[in-house]
Amino acid sequence: MSWQVAVLLVAGFVVAGVLSYRQHLAYQRAVNRLATEENRSGVLLVSGRAKGRLRGAVVLLCIDRRRAEVTRAVAMQGASVFAGFRDCPDLVGPVAGAEERAGSRALARAVHDALGTAARLNAGALRSRTA
Predict the structure, then answer these.
(1) Is residue 126 left, alpha or beta, with left meaning phi > 0 and alpha meaning psi from -120 to 50?
(2) 68 is in which domain, residue-wise?
(3) Count of other CB atoms within 10 angstroms of residue 88
(4) pLDDT tens track of the chain, all 131 residues?
(5) How many domains does the chain have?
(6) Taking the model in full, what pTM does it have?
């Protein structure tokens, strides 16, 4: 292996690391923005993710514990580090049908993961109310 190939490999890893870090910062900003805007009593902010072979998804759900409803949803889906968070008004509504309202399989798995976290944090109250 020549030194040029080694330099290209290192440069590729550095670029991938920088882009991944930028995506992490976008996630952090989205969580902080939602936490600030939805800071009310009885609202739970949960995150779920789904990893796929080519595409993945991350979803942030604001759930009203008393009504068992998703009041706000933001999702990031895609196959690259250039994916960004977008509002998902289709996911807003009762917790019971949130997975079915997801537009893609990866998003449905991310919603399932987020609802599992919400059920653990809420001691199962959401699942028992929606079952």
Answers:
(1) alpha
(2) 3-130
(3) 23
(4) 688 898 999 999 999 899 889 888 988 999 999 998 888 888 889 999 988 777 888 999 999 888 888 899 999 887 777 778 898 889 898 888 888 888 888 889 999 999 988 888 876 555 545 44
(5) 1
(6) 0.80
